[in-house]
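Pasting two entries for a bug report.
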Amino acid sequence: MAETLDPGARAAAEQKARKAARDAARKNEASDEPVGKKGIVPPWERGAEGIALVDTHAHIDGEDFEADREETLSRAKRAGVVAVVTFGDTMEASARVVKLAASYEPVFAGVGVHPENAFPFTREDDDRLAAWTKEKDVVAIGEIGLDYYWEKDEDKRAMQRKMFVRQLALARDLDLPVCIHDREAHGDLMTILKTEGRKNRGVIHCFSGSWEMAKELLKLGWLLGFDGPLTYKNAAKLPEIIEKAPADRILVETDCPYLSPLPYRGKRNEPAYVRITAERAAEIRGESLADFAAQTTKNACEIYGLKVGI
């Protein structure tokens, strides 16, 4: 008879399996424009005079960056990135990002538990998250939210909702913004934000909804985060949304190591590539990169209370 895993071990095994699936999907993505194509200049070789960007959503704590984390941050700086906000998605990852924020001057952190890793929160878990927010350069609760793409079990979806509401309450108690993940859970997300989350503030990270949903969120005071998919040929609704969204409600992100923009789709994403997304967004909006970068960096500084040298 197979050994029964305790809840913690089972959650860890499920998390490992989901990560393996995401890694496989990333490696199997077909880029519309091969990286080796002649004429492609990496963002850190394009010059950064007058450019100040913030990668407002990254995950640089994991093994993807173990071998070259310092070089990655150096490339980001040369691309015009003045700050990186890296988020925890488990309690263990949250502990790591707190240490990273204390170790690297351009790095800030958010602590929280991603919906894929939902578990029955206790008062002890609340206290642990709250304690981390007292540390230097911890600026948000996140990445939190709902993800129904990976999770089909209704009981586990209910656990996601319960943990999301609890972390929203914690953020309100601490007077901190939140960074929200929403994948194929738009209806439940909006219901929660209009009820339990009506006094929260923050960002809907990697926005994937419609313009109609975006308008509702904007009315509620939320910011919208845009990532590499904005550069894809099948970007669908995203160009319309970023064109219409108010300038003071837009953030740019990488979600690295995932969601690399073209021409790096299928490769590891990194903070320097936020410049590619910003360039595409500025083009759609008919703005200069410098102006778009200045506005989105101002937005990032205001919502997360960042202190960056520009």
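Entry 2 (this is the one that rendered wrong in the viewer):
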Amino acid sequence: MAKKTISMRSASNENSAAVIEETEETTELINTATAETPEDTEGADNKEKTQAEAEDTSLPEAATEKPAQAEKKPFAGGTFADAMKRGVILENPVLRLVLGTCPTLATTTAASNAIGMGIAATLVLICSNTVISLLRNIIPDKVRIPAYITIIASFVSIVQMMVKAFAPALDESLGIYLPLIVVNCIILGRAEMYASKHAPALSALDGLAMGVGFTTALLCMGTIREILGAGSLFGAKLPILANQPILFFSLAPGGFFVFGLLIAAANKLSKKNNLPVRNGCGDCPAAATCSLSGKGGCK
């Protein structure tokens, strides 16, 4: 019995020693873990700080870039002033693109006729461009030109009835050239080149700009020809020129002469505005209606 008790005590002592060693090992592991965690937490904190600083520094740059982009392009297609500059000077449909020459020469014998023709064409341009832009995804590509002409003819008929109702004298003076707006190359060209590819708001703005350019060219020609050819302005006789009018400017040769002078002046203004030289027909707005578009373009 004494031997058994002695052996049991020795076994218990060994077990207690083993437990003590295990506890010491666990305490060492805990100490090492606790010793490493501050460093890890400090590294994580530093990483979070650097990321936060990078985000803080990137925010002012993005904030400064957005207003700059908004100032350059308030909406697609440029500003109202850019559109008017393009329609009146840089791409004037009469003096730069040389479109609508027939009504230009025929209706500019008087300034009042020129303004009436210009306003009628402007109304048709705005309305037809807007409707064609709204229907650009519906009209089949194969029948787009007949569809455009139908839309333009509808608005020309409305404008003609309004002129007959409210300005019969203007309707008599314009004659056949008012309904001939249907086949005006300016209206059909803008419908094909611009309205069929842009949003309705931009298409309406383009129609307004081109209409103002067309009216400006007609008014300049009509004013010069009426003053020199009839000695009057908007029907009012001028004191000196009324007695000695130059009939040459009231006839077709005088119209061509004034037309050439205005084209030269428009080219001069375009060069002052640094208008880029066109190479080929790819960027020309009159390529759809030009007979030279498939022959190498203008030289």
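Dev reply: Rendering is fixed now. As a check, the viewer should reflect this: Residues 83 and 171 are 30 Å apart (CA to CA).
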